[in-house]
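Q: How would the structure tokens look for this protein?
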Amino acid sequence: MKRRGHGSSMKGRGHGSSMKGRGHGGSSMKRRGHGSSMKRRGHGSSMKGRGHGSSMKGRGHGSSMKGRGHGSRHGSSLKGRGHGISMKRRGHGSSMKGIGHGSSMKGRGHGSSMKGRGHGSSMKGRGHGSSMKEERTW
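A: Here is the predicted structure in token form.
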């Protein structure tokens, strides 16, 4: 697994989501501003991010995603519900794909790159627009 930038790489399996943080912020997942607060609900994963990353919210078996900040500002706001979500975005935003009960998300450029399988969500952050990271772009 390779990661670029100061983002944090997160992996989750099972009904919940297990998150691991690397980089400048260490494994601290709760921070104000550049960090992201994550909550687990049901079989999916509920994610909240503020700052330069994208804000994601998920409930039930699927995950509904909302993008805010520098990461997904260039893209459009995406919302998904149900057992699976298939979302794509171009440009500096993040493109998201969902299959099965979990949500599989992929992002390119300055957005956030996320991958998830099964009931949980496995997330990977790359570049400057990951919500699950602690970076300093100034």
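The longest strand covers residues 36-41.

The chain has one domain: 31-138.

Upvote if useful.
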